[in-house]
Write a structure and sequence with these properties.
about 200 residues; mainly alpha; Recoverin, domain 1; two-stranded antiparallel ribbon; 12 helices; 4 strands; about 5% strand; binds calcium ion; vision; metal-binding; EF_hand_dom; EF_Hand_1_Ca_BS; myristate
Length: about 200
């Protein structure tokens, strides 16, 4: 705010981000500089954020997913993220299953933000994930998860839910902690990685 528009990353913010993400000081500084170049105001808009995703997935359509990710980090819903929120977003959306990542995944799936996940919400996010997989690669997915509907069903069944049930945050986090398959199904993963993981399982 106010006169804090200096070119360098403040020491406090740098320490904070080093502590809360896996990124090094050098990486953070480099990203900060390119962030400021792209977003001189110090805030990234939803459209710019979607543009970054689009450049990562040239053969698919990541717009819906990027929109959901953005929504889950734009907590005051003003349509922008600052550098800190942006870096935390990059950190939490990378795969893994620390508690914070799973809590974030819950907020991604809780599309209307009412504190529980419905089956419709699972389908909406899974559909967005599917749009990031090139059509050619979708053909290589296992038979029982090669459409958004099948994949949502599979997740729903893992949680032993009836059609109109809801999943609460604690239950969601515990379920994903306890079951590698759920983790794989709820997050975006490159199709090749999915194949490798399934292979590992069979051996
Ligand atoms: Ca909800």
């Amino acid at each position: 705010m106010g006169n804090s528009k200096s070119g360098a990353l403040s020491k406090e913010l740098l320490e904070d981000l080093k502590l809360n993400t896996k990124y090094s000081e050098a990486e953070l500084s480099t990203w900060y500089n390119s962030f400021l170049k792209e977003c001189p105001s110090g805030r990234i808009s939803k459209e710019q954020f979607e543009g970054i995703y689009a450049s990562f997935f040239p053969d698919a359509d990541p717009t819906a997913y990027a929109r959901h990710v953005f929504r889950s980090f734009d907590t005051n819903a003003d349509g922008t993220l600052d550098f800190k929120e942006y870096i935390i977003a990059l950190h939490l959306t990378s795969s893994g299953k620390t508690l914070r990542k799973l809590e974030w995944a819950f907020s991604l799936y809780d599309v209307d933000g009412n504190g529980t996940i419905s089956k419709n919400e699972v389908e909406e996010i899974v559909r967005a994930i599917f749009n990031m997989i090139p059509t050619e690669d979708q053909k290589n997915l296992p038979e029982d998860e090669n459409t958004p509907e099948k994949r949502a069903d599979k997740i729903w069944n893992f949680f032993k839910k009836e059609e109109n049930d809801k999943i609460a945050e604690g239950e969601f986090v515990q379920g994903v902690m306890d079951n590698k398959d759920i983790l794989r199904l709820i997050q975006y993963d490159e199709p090749q990685k999915i194949k490798d993981k399934l292979k590992e399982k069979k051996q």
